[in-house]
Amino acid sequence: MSVLDQLWQTIESRKGTDPESSWTAKLLAKGPEKCAEKFGEEAIEAVIEAVRGDRAALTREAADVLYHLLVMLAARDVALGDVLSELAGRQGMSGLDEKAARDPD
Predict the structure, then answer these.
(1) pTM above threshold 0.90
(2) What's the half-sphere exposure (Cβ side, CA atoms, 13 Å) at 47?
(3) Alpha-carbon distances, residue 4 vs 20, 75, 81, 102 (angstroms)
(4) pLDDT averaged over consecutive 10-residue blocks of the chain (105 residues)?
(5) Are 85 and 70 a contacting pair, CB within 8 Å?
(6) What count of Cα atoms within 13 Å lies in the side-chain half-sphere of residue 101?
(7) Quick check: helix, strand or coil at residue 49?
């Protein structure tokens, strides 16, 4: 089992638990909008570190982004497996072709 799968299971197990028992439970209790806001904050921090070129800081922020992405997905009941299936379906397809297939412009 991958570390992402393990993290996903942990996040899922925190749904509906006491918000004082874990950071994940606290985020989930605040609702999907707050989870999305927190994901956005972490994404911005990762972008800042990417621009700065600080590899160690970017690594830490990227881990935060992945964690908060999974929390956001869980808050909206979007399974990690569904996201991974979507990615798998895109393998072997040019990114330009994939974008053109879903973009009406």
Answers:
(1) no
(2) 6
(3) 24, 16, 10, 27
(4) 95 96 97 98 98 98 98 98 94 74 69
(5) no
(6) 8
(7) helix
